[in-house]
Amino acid sequence: MFGTLASGELETARLRRDLGFSCGGIRMEGEQTQKLVVGYALTPKKKKSFLQPKLEVLARRKGICFVPIDLNRPLSEQGPFDVVLHKLLGKEWQDVIEVSGCLLDYQQKHPEVTVLDPPGAIQRIHNRQSMLEGLADLNLSDCSGSIFVPKQMVVLKDSASSADRAVEAGLKFPLVAKPLWIDGTAKSHQLFLAYDRRSLAELDPPLVLQEFVNHGGVMFKVFVVGDTIKVVRRFSLPNISNCEKGKVDGVFQFPRVSSAAASADNADLDPSVAELPPKPFLEALAKELRILLRLRLFNIDMIREHGSKNVFYVIDINYFPGLYLKLFCYAKMPDYEQVFVDFFHDMAQAKQKKRHCK
Ligand SMILES: O=P(O)(O)O[C@@H]1[C@@H](OP(=O)(O)O)[C@H](OP(=O)(O)O)[C@H](O)[C@H](OP(=O)(O)O)[C@H]1OP(=O)(O)O
Ligand SMILES: Nc1ncnc2c1ncn2[C@@H]1O[C@H](COP(=O)(O)OP(=O)(O)O)[C@@H](O)[C@H]1O
Ligand SMILES: [Mg+2]
Ligand SMILES: [Mg+2]
């Protein structure tokens, strides 16, 4: 009956069968009455990776359903939605959000609809300077760790003169050069290591120049979905020794060393490098970040300063990242389907309570 389905698909097919689905059919048994309608505006790639059948099946059990938003029609003619979930980049969605005032009008007419997440808050982390603003001032003093952001400088034009400004700003080489804007294209992930000031002239602004922090070649990706936190280990750039700093000149592009395929969760690593950040610390950090960033769906890339116990640097923040890696048939964030269903279910409960209180 299930032919040669991959294990994940086999499990989903079984789920559908147990729930009374005909394979691929939509007959539903055992589903709750509809509790939450989530309208989504996602790229085809993101829809494919996020709306895995297992997520939809588990969601329907809780009365949560996902409905695609038609970008060619006004939002007000669609729905009604309880939640608008979006991650689109580029002009098409900006038109929906801002130019035609579509999403803003919709929000004003339907204040009860939750927009995940506010476009302005997402915009802030699409810029590698503003994404990290305010993090170093977070009040985490009574936790088992401390958080910093690497010293960095924005170069908007003429990277030749940036060398002097970088030295004046006290930045120490090597520097990681990152595109200032994140636009969902591969270009916004083209990063370089610059070992000396002369090599900066070869880089194309707008950029962020960020001090490289030795961290033992392992980084931590901390996923935040509402109140839930999950942390995974990924391989990262190795330390750069003083000897190498003295010998190497130039600028070098490096690949996406910490992508989902570079999981270090099962690697045998030096605990002083690979030990996960303390849970209370991550909980306190996520709580502060939800307030600072005004986001509920994001992840942060953190590195532990090499040789320290729990001195961490946040180097990247991503909005609602891809959660399922089709290539390896596994969720980048462990149990992401159940985490999201619980997240939306809690939202449905809160909305129901609010309606009853009126
Ligand atoms: O799809 P993927 O697997 O490349 O996921 C990207 C993430 O890669 P990773 O989780 O490290 O594998 C990627 O994470 P990094 O920036 O590489 O740390 C981003 O979250 C990216 O979203 P955006 O384009 O920056 O808004 C994510 O892209 P989207 O899935 O959001 O398009
Ligand atoms: N300041 C830094 N110090 C050390 N390594 C860094 C630094 N910034 C980035 N890296 C390395 O480059 C990788 C990608 O950087 P990141 O800022 O997360 O860009 P992206 O958004 O493309 O993931 C990180 O996972 C880490 O391996
Ligand atoms: Mg990153
Ligand atoms: Mg990123």
- Overall pLDDT score: 87
- Beta-strand share of residues: 15-25%
C-alpha termini separation:
50 Å
- Secondary-structure element sequence? HEHHEEHHEHEEHEEEEEHEHHEEEEH
Low-confidence stretches: 1-5, 18-28
Overall geometry comes to: globular
Describe the largest sheet.
5 strands, mixed
User: What's the number of extended β-strand segments?
Assistant: 16
Overall helicity? 25-40%
Rg over CA atoms, rounded to whole Å, is 22 Å
Number of helix segments?
Answer: 11
Q: Which ions and ligands are bound to the chains? A: MYO-inositol-(1,3,4,5,6)-pentakisphosphate, adenosine-5'-diphosphate, magnesium ion
Structural class: alpha/beta
Strand order of the largest sheet: 5-14-13-10-11
Enzyme class: transferase
Domain Inositol 1,3,4-trisphosphate 5/6-kinase ATP-grasp: 144-345
Protein name: Inositol-tetrakisphosphate 1-kinase
Organism: Brassica napus
How would you describe this structure to a colleague?
Helix 1 runs parallel beside helix 3 and helix 3 packs parallel to helix 11. The protein has a 5-stranded mixed beta sheet with strand order 5-14-13-10-11. The protein has a 5-stranded antiparallel beta sheet with strand order 6-9-7-8-12, with helices on one face. A 4-stranded parallel beta sheet has the order 2-1-3-4. The chain is 30% helix and 23% strand. By secondary structure, the chain is of the alpha/beta class. The longest helix has 22 residues, at 336-357. The chain binds MYO-inositol-(1,3,4,5,6)-pentakisphosphate, adenosine-5'-diphosphate and magnesium ion (2 copies). Residues 258, 301, 316 line the site of one magnesium ion. Residues 144-345 form the Inositol 1,3,4-trisphosphate 5/6-kinase ATP-grasp domain. It comes from Brassica napus. Residues 37-122 form the Inositol-tetrakisphosphate 1-kinase N-terminal domain. Keywords: ATP-binding, Kinase, Magnesium, Metal-binding, Nucleotide-binding, Transferase. Its EC number is 2.7.1.134.
